[in-house]
Amino acid sequence: MTVTTADSTRTTAADTGARTAEAVDVITGARERIDALDDRIIGLIQERMAVSAVIQEARITSGGRRVNLSREMEVLGHYSDALGKPGTTLAMTLLELCRGRV
């Protein structure tokens, strides 16, 4: 439950699962930061998709294939090295988002 006052909106323990007011404040602040980070990540993904479209267009126009599998393997390796197995899954999702938009 969120309580709205004349000054602001206050998040309560029911919203966060916290058991103290201090924890509610920490969680609320951290969630705001996560929301801002998510907005930035989404923007970066959209930018990556646009850059990928430029690359695909250039490759296709020059007579090449839409997808360069060796490059995709490099990307998968990079994410896997940085983030482990979940990084591979993340990279696969990014590659899927960026393929075939041309």
UniProtKB/TrEMBL annotation:
<dbReference type="InterPro" id="IPR002701">
    <property type="entry name" value="CM_II_prokaryot"/>
</dbReference>
<keyword id="KW-0413">Isomerase</keyword>
<dbReference type="InterPro" id="IPR010958">
    <property type="entry name" value="Chorismate_mutase_highGC-bac"/>
</dbReference>
<dbReference type="InterPro" id="IPR036979">
    <property type="entry name" value="CM_dom_sf"/>
</dbReference>
<protein>
    <submittedName>
        <fullName>Chorismate mutase</fullName>
        <ecNumber>5.4.99.5</ecNumber>
    </submittedName>
</protein>
<dbReference type="Pfam" id="PF01817">
    <property type="entry name" value="CM_2"/>
</dbReference>
<dbReference type="InterPro" id="IPR036263">
    <property type="entry name" value="Chorismate_II_sf"/>
</dbReference>
<dbReference type="GO" id="GO:0004106">
    <property type="term" value="F:chorismate mutase activity"/>
</dbReference>
<feature type="domain" description="Chorismate mutase">
    <location>
        <begin position="21"/>
        <end position="102"/>
    </location>
</feature>
